[in-house]
Design goal:
- This protein is an all-alpha fold.
- It folds into 2 domains: about 50 residues, Arc Repressor Mutant, subunit A (Orthogonal Bundle); about 130 residues.
Length: about 200
Amino acid sequence: MGRARTVEDEDILKAARLAFLDRGQLATTREIAEAAGISQAVLYQRFGSKDDLFFAAMAPPPPDLDGLLGDPPRAPEETEAYLADVAERLYRYFETVAPLFVQLATHTAFRADHLADAHQPMMESGLVGALGIRLGDLAQKGRIRSGDGSAMAGLLISVVHGEALSAALLKTPPDGERRRETIRLLWRGLSPTGTSE
């Protein structure tokens, strides 16, 4: 009978994620193993190679769809503020995952499918799909202009994701006012009356 694991894989991945975010590919398996409280041999038994460990550690956490979308607005006049709140929560999520994407894209063993796998939780079956359904519901209630909810969701997510990725690449501080202005501009197209209120 084998020994029970005292250090879970997620604890190893957390130690690896911190090391890779701090030092990139220069992080060693020795320092990661020490930080996780295991031997290098155990690390390799669990993950096979440093590259396998890297790609497992840099996989972004799945989005908390309920937390990101929040409760729908109760009154029509709350819709623009609701969209601004969703955009802010999306930004905070992307702010945490953008550095992971940067590390993925700059790894020497990077392949396009790594990035596709990392973005999968945001595709139609995930975040884009859930936000698209929410926007479709708002359109049916007359809270926003009717249209393809998935297209509207994709636009909002792309803008916020792009801002977070740009901030991670350029090391610029978050710009909440820019996000609010973006929502005001989007609202002009989404508003059932066609203008910002």
